[in-house]
């Protein structure tokens, strides 16, 4: 999935970013494979990376001017909320609004969205890069949304249409037509039932990519995942 991740980075940066510096959130609740596999793939693509904790973000590290994008990995988004709080969320929003990129996978996508339906919380939730709703379909009993390898349809130029991707209860995205028009929301991937799985949009001068599934995780790099979540697209 290396080339898919490269496409996401281009979407988030709105450039080819040959020497981008990408921050990866590494606070409490982060799922290690999501963090480590994204980091490894970014290295192989020639990008500089650094890990940021909640303390770093609260201290204003995103304001130094040397970071092009931030990745919020999969994991436990409610712990991101607990540690970053209102001030940390505002620092991230300001970073994106000024022109930074934001890539959120699963928990990172929940964290980016203002409202959540199902699961840990129903109601106000994340930092509001997306003003719509991140729906937790597994907790709400949607058919077929159990954790496992799933066939995801990608709507990206020069890529094949179907990929088998690990899914761990990531969100469905819902938003108004008004927000779609205002932020130029583009659907980049859909689930097997046609629900929205991945979107790209503008937030201020920055760009955001949110994904419910985990295309960043290379299953063959983890023995347990390789045995339990075989990935034919690796």
Q: If you compute it from the alpha carbons, what radius of gyration comes out, rounded to the nearest whole angstrom?
A: 16 Å
Share in helix: 25-40%
Strand order of the largest sheet: 2-1-3-4-13-12-11-8-9
Estimated share of beta-strand residues: 25-35%
Shape: globular
Secondary structure tally: strands: 13
Mean pLDDT figure: 90
Helix count, DSSP H or I runs of 4 or more residues: 7
Low-pLDDT runs of 5+ residues are none
Which sheet architecture does the biggest sheet show?
9 strands, mixed
Q: Can you write the helix and strand succession as a string?
A: HEHEHEHEHEEEEEEHEEEH
N-to-C span:
6 Å
Structural class: alpha/beta
Give a verbal description of the structure.
- With 234 residues, the chain is α/β, with parallel strands linked by helices.
- Helices cover 30% and strands 29% of the residues.
- The protein has a 9-stranded mixed beta sheet. Strands 6-5-7-10 form a 4-stranded mixed beta sheet.
- α2 links the parallel β1 and β2.
- The chain starts with a helix and ends in a 6-residue tail after the last helix.
In short:
The chain has helices at 2-13, 32-44, 54-58, 77-97, 107-112, 177-183, 223-228; strands at residues 21-25, 48-52, 69-72, 101-105, 113-117, 123-124, 130-135, 148-154, 162-167, 172-174, 186-190, 196-203, 206-211. It is of the alpha/beta class and 234 residues long.
Task: Give short descriptive properties of this protein.
about 230 residues, alpha/beta, 9-stranded mixed sheet, 4-stranded mixed sheet, 7 helices, 13 strands, about 30% strand
């Amino acid at each position: 999935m290396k080339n898919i991740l490269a496409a996401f980075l281009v979407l988030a940066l709105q450039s080819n970013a040959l020497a981008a510096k990408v921050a990866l959130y590494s606070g409490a609740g982060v799922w290690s494979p999501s963090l480590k596999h994204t980091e490894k793939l970014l290295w192989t693509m020639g990008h500089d990376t650094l890990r940021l904790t909640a303390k770093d973000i609260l201290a204003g590290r995103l304001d130094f001017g040397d970071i092009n994008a931030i990745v919020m990995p999969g994991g436990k988004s409610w712990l991101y909320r607990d540690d970053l709080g209102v001030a940390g969320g505002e620092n991230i929003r300001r970073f994106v609004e000024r022109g930074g990129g934001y890539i959120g996978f699963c928990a990172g996508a929940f964290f980016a969205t203002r409202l959540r339906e199902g699961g840990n919380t129903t109601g106000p939730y994340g930092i509001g890069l997306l003003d719509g709703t991140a729906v937790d379909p597994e907790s709400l009993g949607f058919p077929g949304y159990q954790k496992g390898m799933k066939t995801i349809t990608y709507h990206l130029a020069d890529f094949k249409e179907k990929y088998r991707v690990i899914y761990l209860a990531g969100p469905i995205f819902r938003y108004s037509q008004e927000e779609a028009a205002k932020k130029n929301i583009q659907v980049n991937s859909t689930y097997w039932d046609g629900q929205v799985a991945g979107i790209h949009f503008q937030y201020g001068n920055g760009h955001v990519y949110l994904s419910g599934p985990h295309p960043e995780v290379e299953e063959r790099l983890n023995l347990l995942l390789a045995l339990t979540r075989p990935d034919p697209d690796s």
